[in-house]
Amino acid sequence: MKVDEVLQCSFPSWYNKFKDITIKSYMIPLPQEFIDYLHADGIVLPAESITASAQESNDDNMEGEEIDVDWDDDDGPIAEEPSFPEFETTIKNKIKSCGGKVFPKLNWSSPQDATWISFDKTLKCTCPSDIYLLLKSSEFITHDLTQPFYKCEDYDEDRSDITVKYHLILRQWQDLNPAAEFRCYVRNNQLLAISQRHHSIYYEHIVDQREDIVADIKSFFYHMVSPKFPCTNYSFDVYRRDKGKLLLIDFNPFGSVTDSLMFTWKELEEAESLESTGTDSADFPAFRCVARPEGVQPSPYATCGVPRDIIDLATGQDPYKLMDLLKLKVQNQNEESSDDDEDTIATPTT
User: Please, where are the H alpha helices in the chain?
Assistant: First the structure.
């Protein structure tokens, strides 16, 4: 994976070339103060976005009610509220242009790992505060901002010729059927492999329609994608609305920073042939899906929203945390034992 391949997969680099076959989207340049806000610790939403959301909610659902709630906490420190009035006005206008519902992303990633914090557990946003909350809660977004060229073989931190202009991408919300999403891997301009996008769910019809799905994606790739995309190695996501009707969703670099789903990156990078689900055929592209209910895999976002310390303890990734936990347990037991001894001494005998 190389720096130029990552840059070509950045949304602003490819959208205008493929806007006729992808979802309607708007690109808003990120002001530096908003980038600084995303880098800052903690989650503090701009006051104007909260006020606007509350006013809309009151107008729609709480007409005639009077609520008097004091949220002030005089005992704790007061976090400074950020403010981006011009940026927020632009966001509101673009949301309106998209029909009132959008899903956000930055140049490469969407905050898929932060859906646990949204009200409906999706990326659907109807106001700026929804967008801010998802972006601030996502490690994927942090990766976009801090390590976009992670694992690039030709990247050097001292390079001064690489400039990334970050954008907030607002894509028109569509209720996509997850059973119709597929990820495709391209190596040396050849469609190498196709994977069911959501491998944590079993869809019976995918196995039955496998040949038609592969034929549609091959035709879409060689006629609509390959002639316009400048890289020879990459991956792309498609949505198959119906037979012969496909929608381009996104591009991703061909490398381990992209989820390999039902393949492994060793297979994709080294194998001369790949087996498909339910067949011994090694023809390209290889196609894999969940062939039976027992074959589902855990959702890659299952642990998102769980405190990192708990994950480290459960997986054994950080033995020092386990040692600290055991020491704390012993300390608590000693304190309880000491308290019991003191109670026994203080109890008078008759």
Answer: 3-8, 11-18, 32-39, 47-61, 85-97, 128-136, 139-146, 204-208, 210-220, 265-270, 308-315, 319-346
